[in-house]
TrEMBL record:
Keywords: Transferase. One of its GO terms (molecular function) is transferase activity. Pfam families: Glycos_transf_2. This is Glycosyl transferase, family 2. Residues 13-181 form the Glycosyltransferase 2-like domain.
Amino acid sequence: MRLPWGCVLMKLSVLMPIYNEKEFLEDIVKKVLRQQVVGIDEIELIMVDDCSCDGTIEVVKDLAQKYPQQIQAFYHEHNKGKGAALKTAIGKMTGDICIVQDADLEYDPADYPLVLEPIIQGRADCVYGSRFLGGRSKRVLFFWHSLGNKFLTLLSNMFTNLNLTDMETCYKAFRCDILKSLPIESSRFGFEPEVTSKIAKKKCRIYEVGISYQGRTYEEGKKITWKDGVQAIWTILKYH
């Protein structure tokens, strides 16, 4: 990737909401911190534990002590949801660009260069990493989850007049000033349709890139359910 002439190196804020991810947390943190992206000279990882009850909090504390120059850690006293954890992280970020990173191994930080490139080059304000665009590997799992994701994306597109292929993706990157300017209200999985609606209304320059995806089964720790899909529909209608 080539940078525009005179481009200033940027700081990346990685926003990581965490709930009961003791098994995978250390591996994903190491992957995040070792990423090298052209145009990025500093990475800060903002970890927000949402009142985990499986020993995750101790792992977060250990990692924050191990990487004090790169990790900021915050802890919710009560379980509030992914959106609430992201709101905490957004309030603490100090970078130029940010990206949402789940605390499992479904999304690979090796895709950061692809996702961040349009923003670094000044072409985009926001970039979505799509699991449904071709060219990257994807674990084959649940038909109904895939269909549900595509339905929610279609419904969101109808109201936002966008042509996204994956509104529900975790990998969303933003210019930090834009994300900070959005009054996010959703505390749980409604974050995805709400932020999509608000960047569409703001007329942001939105790009999509294909990413890899190694989805989990429920036995492996997947948490989202059909109830979250219903909430997403309600959120789409609320913010249209």
